[in-house]
Amino acid sequence: MKQSISVLALAFAACGGTDRQPTGPEPEREPACTPPADASAPAYSDLYASYFAAGTPGHCATAHCHGAPGANVWSCGDSAADCYAGMVRAGLINVTDPARSLIADPQRSPLLWVNQAGDMPFDSNAPLPAGRDAILAWVAACAPND
Length: 146
Ligand code: HEM
Description:
146 residues; mainly alpha; 4 helices; 0% strand; elongated; binds protoporphyrin IX containing FE
């Protein structure tokens, strides 16, 4: 019995035990998000120009809202690139799993256009189906920084 255990231990050591590195190509990982083929979704820069910039229905980039001076909680900034980066930092856009971005979540989005219980824009509670649909289409297209 003792002899067979040491033979087994020897065989195990000879085969490299449990820390053998898998050989061969990495298994193909499913992409986190595949944009629809029709490419009809608005670009983020369109969303910014129509819904997030100062003077728009969402006007997040307004001073004392999410624009300087006096941005609250997160900063949208005065360009689409700055606002995209600010929304990523705020957790509104999920770059690793874009289709699950918070801004488009009907239960958790802070935006009342998307989630009726949302509280943003802070100074307006008017629904905006066009804004909602544009944001949902962009997120379904994998929320690109375009
Ligand atoms: C589409 C546009 C907007 C988005 C995506 C947005 C998003 C957010 C988020 C994620 C927060 C933090 C969590 C929350 O309180 O829900 C927040 C807080 C806040 N936002 Fe907005 N916001 C927008 C527009 C505005 C506007 C226009 C104003 C000003 C009139 C504003 C003022 C504020 C303030 C004061 C807070 C802090 C609220 C508190 O402390 O309870 N936001 N916003």
